[in-house]
Automatic annotation (TrEMBL):
It is an enzyme of class 4 (lyase). This is Probable enoyl-CoA hydratase, mitochondrial. GO terms for cellular component: mitochondrion. Belongs to the enoyl-CoA hydratase/isomerase family. InterPro entries: ClpP/crotonase-like_dom_sf (IPR029045), Enoyl-CoA_hyd/isom_CS (IPR018376), Enoyl-CoA_hydra/iso (IPR001753), Enoyl-CoA_hydra_C (IPR014748). Its EC number is 4.2.1.17. GO terms for molecular function: enoyl-CoA hydratase activity. It comes from Chaetoceros tenuissimus. GO terms for biological process: fatty acid beta-oxidation.
Length: 268
């Protein structure tokens, strides 16, 4: 990957000798700690570019996003947007680029600190969210006279239900990592900040051991549940399920089970 100004990228491979076939994990670290990784337009360009590059690399199975410093991301860049007029915001369709954040491989958000406003929204765009015990989640936009603008009013209600979403969005108050786990916003609070990345990579390696087509298809089907009614969703799932029987990986996965050996995936 190229050198980015606002993020750091690296790749990790499983060192587990029993799982040599696991695909690697692409790591993206938001790296603007001085502004608590505020999500400027330029940072977004780096983020989407790196995520797309990892998405194309065959030896990468998943992506982890985390933040450098004391924040995951403290939201949109306030100085950058503070002087915008309605016409500028409207005419440029401000923040519409975030709707393009569509990546086929699983993304794990490893939330290391503040995930506020656009930062909380970014975490919710990811597929799995884990957090360190000190992490804080919130939609504080009302404190600034605005509302969430990258999915907060839509994704939070799906994650935690109406009453909790309303409370966060209307009061702007932060919740702790522990509360976020209780509410179903995140899947796990890890033991300490120090082990956060390790835990995220472990999830990545576990994903990287599975059939890669099935993984991407499973993500697509789960995401479809938010767009479709139950009947359509069940049909979409079943048809994709059928389609997997056309892959050699399905024959390999079931064959390996029957032979009591580890499958060797071909991504085909
Ligand atoms: N944008 C730009 N700079 C920021 C931001 C931000 N969102 N948040 C913090 N910073 C800067 C501070 O200005 C400060 O800079 P400096 O050192 O130059 O004064 C530096 O980061 C450190 O921050 P603090 O000194 O404030 O650190 P504290 O530990 O005292 O407080 C807080 C941490 C509580 C996180 C506090 O910084 C804060 O409240 N930040 C603003 C959080 C916020 O309101 N976020 C929502 C922004 S609006 C938004 O996200 C709209 C979403 C629309 C779509 C977004 C798509 C990306």
């Amino acid at each position: 990957l190229k050198d980015y100004q606002h993020i750091l990228t690296s790749r990790f491979e499983s060192k587990d000798p029993e799982k040599p076939a696991s695909l690697g994990v692409g790591l993206i670290e938001l790296n603007q700690p001085k502004s608590l990784n505020s999500l400027s337009d330029a940072l977004f360009e780096d983020l989407i570019d790196a995520a797309r590059v990892f998405d194309k690399q065959e030896d990468i199975g998943s992506i982890v996003i985390t933040g450098k410093g004391k924040a995951f991301a403290a939201g949109a860049d306030i100085p950058e947007m503070s002087t915008k007029s309605f016409a500028e915001a409207y005419n440029s369709n401000m923040f519409s680029q975030w709707a393009e954040f569509k990546i086929s491989k699983p993304i794990i958000a490893a939330v290391n600190g503040f995930a506020l406003g656009g930062g909380c929204e970014l975490a919710m765009m990811c597929d799995i969210v884990i957090a360190s015990p000190n992490a804080k989640f919130g939609q504080p936009e009302v404190n600034l006279g605005i509302i969430p603008g990258a999915g907060g009013t839509q994704r939070l209600i799906r994650a935690v239900g109406k009453s909790k979403a309303m409370q966060m969005i209307l009061t702007g108050e932060m919740i702790t990592a522990e509360q976020a786990e209780r509410d179903g916003l995140i899947s796990k609070v890890v033991e300490s900040r120090e082990v956060l990345l390790e835990e995220a990579l472990k999830i990545g390696y576990a994903i990287g051991e599975k059939g890669p087509i099935a993984i991407r298809m499973a993500k697509e089907c789960v995401n479809a549940a938010e767009e479709m009614n139950l009947e359509q969703g069940l049909q979409f799932e079943r048809r994709n399920f059928h389609a997997l029987f056309a892959t050699s990986d399905q024959k390999e996965g079931m064959g390996a089970f029957l032979d009591k050996r580890t499958p060797v995936w071909k991504n085909e």
